[in-house]
Amino acid sequence: MKKINKLIIGFVVLTVFSCASDDINPEITASDFFQTIDENQLINTEIGKIEATSNEGKLSFTIKSQSPNGSLAIHNTNGILSVANATTFDYETNQTITASIEIKSKSLTKTIKATITLNNTDDLAFFLSASKAAYIAAADNEWVFVTENEYNTLYNNLNSVAVHGSTGSEFDYTSEIQLGPFNGWTMANINQETAMPDHSYIFAFKYEVKGNNIANTQVKQSSTSNYSGFTDVGNALPIHSSTISKIFCFVIKNNNNPTTNNGYMGLYKSENSYLSFKRQPGKYYWSNSNVNDLNDDNYGSDGASGVRWLHQGLSTTQKQW
Predict the structure, then answer these.
(1) Is the dihedral angle over the CA atoms 152, 155, 156, 162 positive or is it negative?
(2) Which residues of 226-238 are buried (b: 16+ CB within 10 A; e: fewer)?
(3) Which helix (H) or strand (E) holds 19?
């Protein structure tokens, strides 16, 4: 009799567990993903993990769509999101990056949305290397030495960059480098120069010069014309020296003063320096002092000709710092 009771009890237990098992519905549990990170991320940087579970087995993850396309990658089995295209992590272009992510477990499928919000950071600091610490430590409107490689990196990586003063080909022109007068004067190259678009920020400058303890050199801009209405861009350049004609490169920290119309770049060359030039097709305005207007009647409306003074500025219409 006891054996029969035990058999009956065992049957009932098995039946209960079997019914309970049948009552469990397979499902995937996952929520939409949200993350906020700085712009200018490096490729393969981990952004975060899609948290998901299933009572039906192992999970797999796939990006079904994303905007901008190609921005993100996801690990198929652990759900870790990472940077696939560093160039799209640019606040000035994309404030948010989104993706539709499909999660699978055997016969189950669930789709969630991932949203990555970008913080606006200083693009100049990001692209600098050897000069990064000096730039970060600088005060607003202070010019900082950078290498020519860093200058070129900014030119190649910032958005909407325009070149003013002398072009690269004019720096490289085959004629001999010559030195201008020793006294201080304000000048602006005028032919082959494209005006800065309205609301442009000058952010970098280079020039070729010779002199000892060169001080008070001042980058200038005008929203009026290429011979009048010039104002200073930031503080004077830091003191620099060279016993030969040498290219010096600079960036300005946090320039918040764009042109208010189409703009033009000028330069006040300090009095104890020799600005380099090459004889080639070119025209310029100049004045024998630190002034705002260069419309010298001696040269009329066309300026002096046959010279390109070797100085160059970079500007952008997108404030990326």
Answers:
(1) negative
(2) bbbbbebbbbbbb
(3) helix 2-23
Q: Contact at 8 Å (CB) between 97 and 47?
A: no
- pLDDT tens by residue, 201-240: 999 999 999 999 999 999 999 999 888 999 999 999 999 9
List the domain boundaries for the chain.
Answer: 28-119, 123-316
The CATH class of 28-119 is mainly beta
pLDDT digits (tens, 9 = 90+) for 100-112: 999 999 889 999 9
Give the chain's end-to-end CA distance (angstroms, integer). 88
Instruction: Give residue for tokens 């004629």.
Output: 175
* Residues β-bridged to residue 117: 36, 96
Q: Is the pLDDT of residue 294 over 90?
A: no
Instruction: Answer whether 309's CB lies under 8 Å from 275's CB.
Output: yes
Scan for tokens 């070129």, then name that residue.
152
Distances (CA, A) of 268 to 20, 182, 214, 236, 315: 87, 12, 12, 9, 18
For 89, the enclosing helix (H) or strand (E) is none
Of the candidate ranges 18-27, 45-54, 84-93, 217-226, the one whose mean pLDDT is the lowest: 18-27
Structure tokens at 283: 């025209």
